[in-house]
Design brief:
Distance between the termini: 40 Å
Shape: globular
Largest sheet: 7 strands, mixed
Strand content: over 45%
Helix content: under 10%
Structural class: mainly beta
Radius of gyration: 13 Å
Order of helices and strands: EEEEEEEEEEE
Number of strands: 11
Number of helices: 0
């Protein structure tokens, strides 16, 4: 199993940047693909991107492609979400998730709030 704790959320103006961190505890971090999701009030949870366990390849939906970057530090059991050119529509609670060998997103953090003001 793995436990996940997000940090780094906050209030930022439109056009600004923010970096979220996710600390993973437990063994075998390198066997987990790591993902980021977000949920705005009244909306369903939305996929933001992922970084693969195998080769650290990344994938992003069109809504954030070119603005968001996911990276991981396997030595520190950390995954990051760098968010640039933020928009008010990016306002949401952001969640880190882990999928064992990239199968199912079975493990979730508690979330961190990101608010982008216009």
């Amino acid at each position: 199993q793995v436990q996940l704790v997000e940090s780094g959320g906050g209030l930022v103006q439109a056009g600004g940047s923010l970096r979220l961190s996710c600390a993973a505890s437990g063994r075998r971090f390198t066997t987990y693909s790591m993902g980021w999701f977000r949920q705005a009030p009244g909306k369903e949870r939305e996929y933001v991107g992922r970084i693969a366990w195998s080769d650290s390849s990344t994938d992003y939906p069109d809504a954030v492609k070119g603005r968001f970057t996911i990276s991981r530090d396997n030595a520190k059991n950390m995954v990051y979400l760098q968010m640039n050119s933020l928009k008010p529509d990016d306002t949401a609670v952001y969640y880190c998730a882990a999928a064992y060998f990239g199968t199912r997103w079975d493990y979730w953090g508690q979330g961190t709030q990101v608010t982008v003001s216009s």
